[in-house]
Design a protein that fits this description.
Layout (H helix, E strand, L loop, with lengths): L5 E11 L11 E7 L2 E4 L10 E10 L6 E7 L7 E8 L2 H7 L10 E6 L11 E6 L2 E9 L7 E9 L8
Antiparallel strand pairs: 1-4, 1-10, 2-3, 2-5, 5-6, 7-8, 8-9, 9-10
């Protein structure tokens, strides 16, 4: 872990209009991967608009690695069904962190990331200074599925003794 630069806290907020994989609903959970790390949220029963509001924390060693997010439907007696996936880069977020923006008023937008064919954003994503921290709210359109979006928020945690930005 010599090349650890810090921790990325991903708050998995909610899913919107997720695909139905059971009879009338789904039991969704989210798996977040970055490199060899893999974390998951709890399962929310019978809900295609789940609210997780769960924090998953990844150790960042290479800011060029994308974050991969996959939604699954939990099944008791069979393999869990995939309900779509998305991927996003953290490079713009890391660049904003490196700006040392100490004295800005809370709510100041540092930069915006536009949706494109190269990312899974469903709408413009703002990176902003909020209460002494750089945060980014992201709404991801799920791929390989008929419908669904997942909303997440990024926040950085500096660790004493690590390489840093």
């Amino acid at each position: 872990m010599d090349n650890l630069i810090g921790l990325l806290r991903i708050r998995v907020k909610r899913g919107v209009n997720l695909a139905v994989r059971d009879v009338r609903s789904s039991d969704p959970y989210v798996v977040v991967k970055m490199g060899k790390q893999k974390l998951k949220t709890r399962v929310i029963k019978k809900d295609v608009n789940p609210e997780w509001n769960e924090d998953l924390t990844l150790s960042v060693t290479d800011p060029k690695l994308p974050v991969k997010l996959t939604v699954y439907d939990h099944d008791t007696f069979s393999m869990d069904d995939k309900m779509g996936d998305a991927e996003f880069e953290i490079k713009s977020y890391i660049d904003a962190l490196r700006m040392n923006l100490g004295g800005l008023p809370s709510g100041t937008i540092i930069t915006r990331v536009q949706p494109s064919r190269q990312n899974c954003l469903s709408e413009e994503s703002s990176i902003m200074w909020s209460e002494g921290k750089v945060v980014q709210d992201i709404c991801l359109r799920l791929r390989n599925v008929e419908c669904g979006e997942v909303e997440v928020q990024l926040q950085w945690i500096d660790l004493p003794g690590c390489k840093g930005l």
